[in-house]
Amino acid sequence: MKNGIKALLLICAVLVGGAAFGQNLKFGVINSQEVISKMPERDSAEAKLMKLRNELGSQIESLQVELNQKYQAFVQGRDKMADLVRQNKEKEIQDLQQRVQEYGQNAEAELSKQQGALLKPIVEKITEAIKAVGKANGFAYIFDTAVPSLAYYDTTMAVDVLPLVVKQLGIKDKPAEKPAEKPAAPSKKK
Q1: 110-156 residue pLDDT tens
Q2: CA dihedral 55, 57, 62, 64 (to 10 degrees)
Q3: Which helix (H) or strand (E) holds 160?
């Protein structure tokens, strides 16, 4: 909220200052997430993340299978176990359950870390392209609509610089996917 207010005050100051000097400020907007979706590098990053997700998932799955097997064996034989053996088995199951839970948390953290590492060069490349487009086309500001700090922009006053940034990056625009056609509704005859 504070950042939004600061941004609004900054924009107002710039607009008032610009009007006082008779400058015609040019504002642009872009959705950086849309640019990321068009980047060819994104596909390889997603493939690497999917591979890691599958590896980590299979490890969690095998730990879970081991836990389930030990638990089932314990349930079936606990009535025949001596107290000390039963307590030992209960502790063993609890420890394994804790390991499964910790591994799951560590796996999520690792996925997040890898995602950040894989997206960082893509985001940096986009940031540099946005800066180049801004300078080359005389924009005073370019706002990223993917970041929720921008509450409003007048589409007649702001220019969407997505096509310029995509061109700057040399990305060939993929054809839009056609939605699946719905089968025609049966006609009702009277």
Answers
A1: 999 999 999 999 999 998 899 889 888 888 888 888 886 654 566 67
A2: 160
A3: strand 158-160
| Overall fold of domain 2-6+24-169 | Protein Binding, DinI Protein; Chain A (3.30.910)
Of 75, 60, 65, the residue nearest 110 (C-alpha)? 60
Show the DSSP H helices in 21-159 as ranges.
Answer: 32-38, 40-77, 83-136
Q: What is the DSSP letter of 140?
A: S
- The rounded distance, in Å, linking the Cα atoms of 18 and 36 is 33
Residue 28 DSSP SS3: strand
CA–CA separation, 26 vs 29, rounded Å?
10
Bridge partners of 144, per DSSP, are 30
Measured CA to CA, the distance from residue 83 to residue 188 in angstroms comes to 74
The residues spanned by each domain of the chain are 2-6+24-169
pLDDT band of 185, cuts 50, 70, 90: very low
Q: How many CB atoms lie within 10 A of CB 142?
A: 21
- DSSP conformation class of 149: T
Distance between CA atoms of residues 143 and 43, nearest Å: 26
Tokens of 24: 């015609």
